[in-house]
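Course assignment 3, question 2. Fill in each field.
Student: A.L.
Task: Predict the tertiary structure for the chain below.
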Amino acid sequence: MSYLTPEAKSKLSSTIRALRERLLTDLQNAVESTYRLSITTLSKAGLAEEQRVKRQRLEQWLDEQSRSQGKSKKQEPEISDRYLKTAVKLAAATLLNRLVVIKQMEAHGLIKPAVLTGGWQSRGYREFRDFAPDLCKDETEGYGTLLQLLYDELAQELPGLFGNVGVTALFPIPASTLRAAIEALDAAELKDVWLDDTTLGWVYQYWNDPEREALDAKLNGGGKVEPHEIASKTQMFTERYMVEWLLHNSLGQIWLAMCKKHGWTAEVEADGTLARLEARRKEWREKREQREVALDALMPIEPGIEENWKYWVPQPLTADAVTHAPESVRSLKILDPATGSAHFLVIAFGLLFTLYQEEAKHRGENWSDRQIVESILENNLYGIDIDPRAIQIGAAALILKARLLSPQASPKHLNLVASNLQLASLPADDPALVELRREVTEATGIPEKLTNQIVYALQGADYLGTLLKVDTAVDAAISEYESQFQQAIQGNIFAGFGEQKPDFNFQQTKASLLDKLEQFLSRCTSGDDLGLRLRGEQLAAGIRFIRIVRENSYDLVIGNPPYQGTSKMADAGYITKNYPKGKADLYAVFLERGLQLVRTGGLSAMITMRGWMFIQQFADLREWLLAEKDLRSLGDVSWGAFSEMKDNPVTMSIICNSIPSGIHAIALAPTDPNNRIRSAEELRQKNAGLLCEIGRFEFWSDRFNWSLD
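Answer field:
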């Protein structure tokens, strides 16, 4: 059930926008007044010892960030100021995210007694005030102390949100600011919002909206998106109906293929759920035609199993789908390559939970809710984003979902990572880098120059994220060394042969090199971006990144990647070189990348702009998809598919990483794709049309030429 009505979303949007402005202003003023940054000489600032030490730490951090840009001394003050604003933004966003997560936990009864709900009149605060009156004599009357105690408790599981997040602890929160934030979030109109599992994602989008709007204005004025602006420009929260449509028709397809592979009869087929849904769709379409129901009226869905299959489009299973189906749902791997606030993963979580329960029945085994929840988080769900704030929210959203399904669950780790590894600031003589070069040469023979090339390539992770081809960089270095190795042997043909050299083993060398890289990254990157435990330890972000981004690893790659033409990007060189087919726009690049990340027989399920199907500049991409991949489903929702994004016509595609099967595929066009209508009614009609399968077409993708404009 969704609690985010249009009215509630409007109120949430206005609340988050107002809080964003207040928090950024207040924290900027607070950091200036606390540390007297306008007095550039620390010794003349007249600070108390505690403030002096904190200012020194802040200035050291800013200097480090400035040096990492490799700019001139003249440019350093400007860069330092930008990083200070970035840190203020992270501190403000972290405070807001903490409060929102606690509000959601309280709404679901996961934190008792409540502290935020009711604010200074809450039961939690009243009990604290009675128990520890001596701690209630500061400007917040002890409320800030109580909140910090709650943060410390929650940091045991979510240190990436509630622990020491970067340098955010250096930014003081004024008492009046804290009170204003808590009172705004406690508004009666928002009461039910905190029960919705998509709320965190909407908070993230509404926080980013002003920045994205400013960047749109910059682009309209002829400017370009800088690498550090990409995250803000490309974040767009996905409507729930599109997430569910993609998941039901990709994860659902994988599950039915698994059942056929093992000789099981899926419950949705055995109990007649799919047949009932199809009969109801036919009946509902007739009612629409006879105008007995409105075009935007949703077909009724029974609670329970129907909710998990309501968007399923009946379609044939290909032989490849069955052959390559996972052996168990426990080994099924799902990646969102631009995960944002983990909306896709949160909804996939609920679907996987029911599939685990069903598989246990088929196997005659007993899997507890706790075992299922821990296995889903540790084995099934993966996500990468370039924005650490997104990973903060995504991790919290998944843990909140886990708590609702099994309060006792205690996962060892989550497979989420923010790819801002910040390796660019490492000097050439950094001890960890020197040791890496030495160890790689000793273990594999690869010279230091090639090791440096790999580390240099990893620096692009900050703004490329999933698009960075770590495997390609590693393979290229090994291949170059292998060529030199073979030449060294062949060079002895005329001079005679000395001691026989062993054969070169590419895979063994790669495994050794990746192992050394992981050791290096564990010393040079932190786990603060995610902050979830791995057997009580933080797993370095860099290690998670190179593990998650490996190609041919996933059964399903799913998401709503960024939409941004590369011609409007200040630095698109890597993308145009490495993604020649989709290079015109990031969304097309992700279409290409998604099919590299899935295993043979796996599925890529994406929401993208629809231009890749028609525009001439994507002809190479279409020809590649036609010749080498198997397009299985299209949901062409076109214009007005988003409530918050009006000007981008989009389509949903599900493509199998296998040669064309020759079996017909399915397309739906729930409203006229040529209508450029962007109304709320049009949005509702798209959802309603997908539910009852309006505009269904069957087609054979190998019988037409996509290369034509």
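Instructor remarks: The chain is about 50% helix and 10% strand. The two ends are 42 Å apart (CA to CA).
Grade: pending
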